[in-house]
From TrEMBL:
Source species of the chain: Triplophysa tibetana
Pfam families from the UniProt entry: FtsJ
PANTHER family for this protein: RIBOSOMAL RNA METHYLTRANSFERASE, RRNA METHYLTRANSFERASE 2, MITOCHONDRIAL
GO MF annotation list: rRNA (uridine-2'-O-)-methyltransferase activity
Protein name, as recorded: rRNA methyltransferase 2, mitochondrial
């Protein structure tokens, strides 16, 4: 378990009962019955999205010991957990090369052994790109992961626009730091601007020495 244990004396449970909306009740029921949520808890992953990356890496072998990984939109840290294990960034397996994992997010992320997090950092800010270059070995990454999502506005098209804008900024970063032969995993939601993102990706990755993997989802929201 990578979380520090909390003394029981520090835990306070409020006695206030909050009335749940029908939607909240349905969400809770889905969570309780979701096998991936249960598996995430049993395997100490921070959320079920870890299994997305595991599935991709099992198929394409993107993450290898000794690799440098950038995790964009890293909170709460599930993809970083998988990356830490697979690139051996803790150095636990001494017979293998030791990699590195750097996560970026506006949100706070609980510490994770083997990863360095740039919290309160905006992927759309050039200063974040400069800070990342400073931290990366040789200022280059072998793998860039992006499971980013904007705060839900309640309007699907607006959320889609915001995510595409974030992804385009992430691609600016990719052009700066992804080494030749590197890989990009990028999630985006389908929508009327998806073609712009696809065009940019196709131009960037027309060189066969770079690989890209799309996680395209219908609509927006959720994991």
């Amino acid at each position: 378990m990578m979380w520090k244990s909390i003394p029981k004396s520090c835990i306070h449970v409020s006695a206030v009962c909050l009335k749940k909306s029908p939607a909240a009740k349905r969400w809770l029921e889905r969570q309780l019955s979701d096998p991936f949520v249960k598996a995430a808890h049993s395997q100490d992953y921070r959320c079920r999205s870890a299994f997305k990356l595991i599935e991709i890496d099992d198929k394409y072998k993107i993450l290898k010991p000794g690799y440098s990984v950038v995790d964009c939109g890293a909170a709460p840290g599930a993809w970083s957990q998988v990356a830490v294990q697979r690139v051996n960034s803790t150095g636990e397996r001494t017979e293998l090369s030791k990699g590195s994992v750097i996560g970026i997010d506006l949100l706070r992320i609980a510490p994770l052994d083997g990863a360095q997090f740039l919290c309160s950092h905006d992927i759309m800010n050039p200063s974040t790109h400069m800070e990342l270059e400073r931290l990366l070995p040789e200022a280059q990454a072998d793998v860039i992961l992006s499971d980013m999502a904007p705060n839900a506005s309640g309007f699907r098209e607006l959320d889609h626009e915001n995510l595409v804008t974030m992804c385009l900024s992430m691609l600016d970063l990719t052009e700066r730091v992804l080494r030749t032969g590197g890989s990009l995993v990028c999630k985006y939601w389908d929508g009327y601007l998806a073609h712009k993102l696809q065009q940019r990706l196709s131009l960037m990755f027309k060189d066969e020495n770079r690989q890209r993997y799309y996680l395209r989802q219908q609509g927006g929201g959720g994991e």
